[in-house]
Amino acid sequence: MPITIERIQKTQSVAAETDVSSEVLSSLINMAGRQRMLSQRIVLKAMLAQRQCDGALTIAQETLRTFADSHAALVQGRAGLPGLFSPALRDAFHGNGHVAKNIADFIALASAALEAIGRKSAHAEDAVQALIASADPLLNDLHGVTALYEQESRRIARSQKHEQQQLIERIKSIAKEAHIVSFNGQIVASRSDVTGREFAVVAGVMTSITKELEAVVSAFVKKTSAA
């Protein structure tokens, strides 16, 4: 199936913002960065294919498919990738910069050029020249997208660190409250009647839970500090 603007635009869905792990962010940054190399490879191989260099047309077609599939994965999301997970990314692709449209136009130009070369059309040279003319503006767009993914990665890392700190403080507060309850329970349990002895068991369990909670907090703090 030929790659068309309509086919690409159908994949450009809007994803809701969500939490994204550092591993996923690394994959997104790598994929966005790879798009720059792929776009240049498409143009180069198209030029070589126009000169009838052996194998250049096949490589150009395969590279174009990879580029288009990666673009769809970045925008739509796929196999664990979240798509356009933040307002900043959605604005970059679909806002005033028209990055998504520019990429779709490049894919359409490349597809048309390679098809013309394959048919040995008289218009092949013009199609290749149009593709070459689109390469530098597209590269600027792709540079900007990669930089934005890196910026979003730093933003999310800061946000996650803040949330972790809030969680630590909340757990500490709960542990402190539990410790106070346990201490007060032990005082009440100092009575010698049966109810007091039963309460002493409850207070002992509460103390054990408090100590375990404090240990968990300590281990969590060490782990997050090391990260």
UniProtKB/TrEMBL annotation:
It is found in: Membrane. Its main location: membrane. This is Pilus assembly protein PilP. It is a multi-pass membrane protein. Keywords: Membrane, Transmembrane, Transmembrane helix. The keyword Membrane applies. The lineage of its organism: Bacteria, Pseudomonadati, Pseudomonadota, Betaproteobacteria, Burkholderiales. Residues 23-91 form the NarX-like N-terminal domain. It comes from Paraburkholderia rhynchosiae. InterPro entries: NarX-like_N. GO terms for cellular component: membrane. SUPFAM superfamilies: Methyl-accepting chemotaxis protein (MCP) signaling domain (SSF58104).
